[in-house]
Amino acid sequence: MSRPPRIRSSRLVTIGAVAATAGLLLAGCTPASGEPEPSESAAAPSPSAEAPSSSPAPSASASEAPEPDGTPVAFGCDEVLTLDEMYAYNPNFGRQDDWTPAAGSAQAEVVAEQGISCQWVNLTSGITIEVGVSQLSDGEIVDRHEALQASSTAVPTFGAEGYFTVVDGVGEAQVFSGPYRVVATSTAFVEPGEAEQIVRSAVDGLPAA
């Protein structure tokens, strides 16, 4: 065999190897085909429209205030206890004309029943006596009786259907005569006997219903 062909064959092998290597290098530098390009982030969904706040339903027109219990009395403090009657009880007491019962008190309840409440004050000690009178229906009288029977002591010496109790240091005498409710209150009334004269005088002065 002649030498030249072998040299030519060797060169061909070398050239082929170089070409193959170059092809591999080019293939490694080329990005993979079909790879998706990074897309922009999806737009945030627009906030849903807030549901319209429901406007308050129109309220029904306010109903008229209920009628107060009781019937307006047709007399004043002078008829409840006269000056002579109070003088006989204690000459040191004088009537207060600017008296307003404390909210939630028994006297305030009498006023709410369209009655009257009168106050006398001891000019020396400052002790007060309050006497209130209201005029109630038969049903209302029964309701007051039932409430007092559960919370107070019956006192027959008052000269009418009467009750007595002490609430927060204040003696409270209540008497019913016909349609009238008489309430006498004072820190001076520690027991029923100390309220008896005032209660009897107030009941005696009640007009005919």
UniProtKB/TrEMBL annotation:
Ranges where the record places region Disordered: 28-75
Keyword Signal among UniProt keywords: yes
PROSITE patterns, per the entry: PROKAR_LIPOPROTEIN (PS51257)
Highest taxon above the source species: Bacteria
Compositionally biased residues, Low complexity: 28-65
Keyword annotations of the record: Signal
Endpoints of the signal sequence: 1-34
UniProt keyword Signal present: yes
Protein name: Iron ABC transporter ATP-binding protein
